[in-house]
Specification:
By secondary structure, this protein is α/β, with parallel strands linked by helices. 33% of the residues lie in helices and 19% in strands. It has 15 helices and 13 strands. The protein has an eight-stranded mixed sheet, with helices on both faces. Strand 5 and strand 6 form a beta hairpin. The radius of gyration is 21 Å and the shape is globular.
Length: 401
């Protein structure tokens, strides 16, 4: 019996669960012995929760493995990222409610800026505002490739989705983003015959796009990531017996939630609006996934102080969630994004569970040092967070006689 079959056999009625995910919240000190971003932040509400709950460090995939956002969230939702692999392109497409079909290969694309030599000077085109990006996406809708139907849709800021629809296309294509400035975008390379067909289409797409965008001041080129076809996943309701809601600003996280059967509620644009949506829908769902993006963004920007400020913004909304009195409140992240390295890292993520059923530990602050040295949850794989949340909400029956 695997973990999912076990949970399905034990699930029962119980209290409401809120999973508050601060994307990339884990960090590193800038100097040895210094604080991480989380430890440097003024977080009286999160610290108060740590003192009444139980903390630990969750490993998104396996020790030493740096996760992308998709695998990181899958683990939080209780799906083994090594078993259930979802490409970034499908997540982006699902997040904007694009109807992904069986013959589709979805690609998460970034507008970027290239110089006269064809080298990338800005991987995100200056984080071009969404209202500008939408206009550039319209230009790309002129692209035609014989034998393949092309869909191009805006997502948010510099991100957009390209969908290639046609028989015999594969999703195993390498990314074209070199991950550094000063380098040219890579060519798409397919790893099997079907994917080579997709790669050729993608190469032609980029060729036409560069010609169409050559006079754009910022978004004059693009990179492609996460080529993928739609997977099959068991739903939250089938697996956990939960009517689940997702509250997020960024489309990719909405997409992942919808792929596991969560309903997307509200159209919030800020964290404060997300909490209002939570309150408005409180009576209609058993489980709420609430996502906060900007701790990750500031970490990727390498801006330690800005990430600290985002953590402090997160702290301010905690009383609004507490007022709803969830049976179990989980606070965690999908991965660590230390400003020190300006990207995702392999480091475990500080995680806490607040519940009347929690066995309180010695933690008095929410942060890496206390969670790792005093946390009663210890260090555990993220796929076990959902069973822990279910148990702390009184939603798992006894196993065996």
């Amino acid at each position: 019996m695997d973990l999912h079959e076990l949970i399905k056999s034990l699930k029962t009625e119980g209290g409401k669960i809120v999973m508050l995910i601060s994307d990339g919240i884990g960090g590193l000190p800038l100097q040895p012995g210094g604080p991480t971003e989380l430890e440097a932040a003024n977080t009286p509400n999160l610290d108060r929760l740590a003192a009444k709950g139980v903390s630990g460090m969750s490993t998104p995939i396996l020790p030493g493995i740096t996760p992308g956002s998709g695998p990181g969230h899958l683990g939080l939702f209780g799906y083994d990222p090594l078993q259930f692999q979802i490409g970034r392109g499908v997540l982006e497409a699902a997040g904007i409610a694009f109807p992904v079909g069986p013959d589709d290969v979805c690609v998460r694309c970034n507008f970027c800026t290239i110089d006269k030599a064809g080298l990338i000077s800005d991987r995100r085109a200056g984080r071009i505002p969404t209202e500008e990006s939408v206009k550039v996406v319209e230009i790309l809708k002129q692209i035609k490739i014989p034998g393949i139907e092309i869909f191009v849709e805006p997502v948010k800021e510099h991100r957009f989705v390209a969908v290639f629809r046609g028989k015999g296309l594969g999703g195993d294509v390498a990314d074209t983003d070199p991950q550094k400035t000063g380098l040219a975008p890579l060519d798409p390379v397919g790893k099997d015959d079907a994917s080579k067909k997709t790669a050729e289409a993608a190469k032609e797409f980029v060729r036409q796009a560069r010609e169409l965008l050559k006079d754009q001041p910022k978004a004059n080129c693009l990179t492609m990531r996460g080529f993928a076809k739609k997977p099959s996943l068991p739903s939250y309701e089938d697996l956990y017996g939960l009517k689940a809601a997702a509250i997020a600003v960024y489309p990719m996280y909405k997409g992942l939630a919808s792929l596991v059967g969560m309903e997307l509620v509200g159209t919030p644009k800020t964290l404060e609006e997300e909490i209002e949506v939570l309150k408005e829908n409180w009576n209609d769902y058993d489980f709420f996934f609430v996502h906060f993006k900007y701790t990750d963004s500031r970490g990727e920007d390498g801006d330690f102080d800005a990430k600290v400020k985002m953590i402090e913004e997160l702290d301010k909304v905690i009383p609004g969630i507490e007022a709803l009195n969830p049976a179990c409140l989980v606070v965690s992240g999908d991965h660590s994004t230390p400003a020190k390295i300006s990207g995702h890292s392999f480091h475990p993520v500080p995680t806490m569970i607040v519940s009347d059923l929690a066995r309180t530990d010695a933690c008095t602050k929410y942060g890496e040092t206390e969670a790792s040295s005093k946390g009663g949850l210890g260090q555990f794989q993220a796929i076990y967070l959902m069973p822990l949340a279910m148990a702390h909400a009184g939603r798992l029956a006894k196993f065996g006689a």
